[in-house]
Amino acid sequence: MSTRYVITFVTIMTAIVAVLLTGFRQATKAQAELNEDIFNKRAILSAVEDYLGEGVTVASLTDDAVMNIFQTQVEQVVVDASGQVVDGMMADDIDMAKEKKKPEPQRKFPLYIYSEGGSKYYILAVRGTGLWDAIWGNIALKSDLNTVVGATFDHAGETPGLGAEIKDNPAFPAQFKGKEIYTDNGRYVSITVRKGGARDPEHEVDAITGATVTSDGVSDMLYDGIKNYEPYFDKVKQSSQLITQ
Amino acid sequence: MAETATVKEAGKTKEPLFGKKEKALITDPLNDNNPITVQVLGVCSALAVTSLVYPSIVMAIAVIFVTSFSSLFTSMLRNYIPKQVRMIVQLVIIASLVTLVELTLKYLNYPIYKQLSVYIGLIITNCIVMGRLEAFSMANKPWRSFLDGIGNGLGYGAILIIVGLLREIFGKGSLFAGSGIAMNIIGPSPDYWINTNESFLFGWYTNNNLMVMSAAAMFIIGVLIWIQRSWNKKLVDVS
Questions:
Q1: What's the gap in Å between the CA of A159 and the closest CA on chain B?
Q2: Is the complex ipTM more than 0.85?
Q3: What is the rounded average pLDDT for all residues in chain A?
Q4: Is some CB atom of chain A closer than 8 A to the CB atom of B89?
Q5: Where does the record place the FMN-binding domain (chain A) (predicted)?
Q6: Is B85 on the interface with A (CB under 8 A)?
Q7: To 5 degrees, how large is the angle CA B166–CA B32–CA B148?
Q8: Please, which pLDDT band fits residue A104 given cuts at 50, 70 and 90?
Q9: How many domains does chain B have?
């Protein structure tokens, strides 16, 4: 077989395959993006699962219901490193993986404010590093900006049965409910995942046996991640004080 | 005239659409020539995706699709594929089918796509697919190659689902977690998985974390090979 034949064969074949795959991708693109969007929105809502209503779980919500909650009850805000709200941006537009690569003063952070029954819940996004790869999560705070009402975690490649338990075992994120990120005299301490068992019931949770590196990764992620929102929190607290005065 | 007719007839009787040989193409890989337990191919993904049954089933379907259609297309093109670039052409066929699977999963069921993550893409490097193309499709007619592909996909899928069943029941105490019919089989924690019903059996059972890890699949596949060889004497090496 001549070289010319080989080249013609390969070129024609590649062209056919390329056209077919591009066509298929274009045909499925819109739905696939919507699916991804809903998948991410469900993860955000699971941080406030206790406040979705009586007996409502994220899994029991239909896709339409998820979109509806985001349209009617969730306010999407983007805050910058100095705590200013960035105008004209939606929290959905922020890619945390990209933000982490930017120099710190230029970073922007997504914030979802979920309102239910007159109270507001602030859902923060955090991202860090586990044992093998990136880990990320959402932490929901009460309107006092101190008490945690829920948390969800996900990971790119932690070990199943060990590090992956941060996502797979609902008992792990459930520990965060009711913890506080500030001490009584207002010092920022975040929440620590403590190897050997939590000692301070207000600011610590139990680590996962056999997953020390992932557990420490969660601690660091929470400390650095929640801290990013501190300038914004200060501004919110100041303005609410002004209103009460 | 008469001669050509008999030749045609002979051709027809030689290769019925679904005769003994065709049947063997499907059944052989299930037992005597199983890709995982006998040929020991495709073990990587068998260890990685089998911690739950539902992803195992999806993975099995994906592999059956890829093996069968890549065999079919390779066999159709076998007389035109230049020998020098044979492997690359096969790889293009496999890769495009795998991409199709990936796009379809994203379209139909995004959570399961996330769960299987890289392992869908890694079907491209699954030795079963490439092995069957090289060993069978390059030398056989399309229909038979197609059946051979389905057979090998089924043989792979069967092992995947058996391992998945054992690992999920003993590792998580549940079955079909992540799908619409998730249920709790054994163990005390009915709300371990969001979708499970009340636990009804063996409330004392504590989930075995070893089963969740890939190492457990290695043991289970080892035991499966042992069971299969003690029961199927054909596989025992007499030397």
A1: 8
A2: no
A3: 87
A4: yes
A5: 130-229
A6: yes
A7: 95
A8: confident
A9: 1
Between helix B142-172 and helix B20-27 the angle, nearest 10°, is 30
**Sequence letter at residue B61:** I
CB-CB under 8 Å, B96 with A21: yes
Partners of residue A57 in chain B, C-beta under 8 Å: 194
Q: Are B59 and B112 in contact (CB under 8 A)?
A: no
Q: Decide: B216 and B167 in contact? Cβ < 8 Å.
A: yes
CB atoms within 10 A of CB A53: 11
Write out the H or E segment, with its range, that includes residue A8. helix A3-46
Furthest-apart CA atoms within chain B: distance in Å: 79
> Chain B residue with minimal CA distance to A20?
B96
Amino acid at A82: S
| A137-146, A164-173, B229-238 — most confident range | A137-146
Out of A10, A25, A39, closest to residue B85 by CB: A10
- The Cα–Cα gap between A140 and A148 comes to 6
Confidence class for position B2, pLDDT limits 50, 70, 90: very low
Locate the chain A residue with the closest alpha carbon to B215: A160
Within-domain flag for B220: no
As a whole number of angstroms, the longest Cα–Cα distance in chain A is 89
Chain B residues 194-233 with a CB less than 8 Å from chain A: 194-195, 209-210, 212-214
Tell me the residue range of the domain where B95 lies: 42-170
State percent of chain A over pLDDT 90. Answer: 29
Region class of A171: left (phi > 0), else alpha (psi between -120 and 50), else beta: alpha
pLDDT band for position B193 (50/70/90)? very low
Torsion-angle region of residue A119: left (phi > 0), alpha (psi -120 to 50) or beta? beta
Work out the end-to-end distance of chain A between its first and last CA atoms, rounded to an integer number of angstroms: 89
Report CB contact under 8 Å: A57, B194.
yes
Distance from CA of A41 to the nearest CA of B (A): 12
Does residue B226 belong to any structural domain of this protein?
no
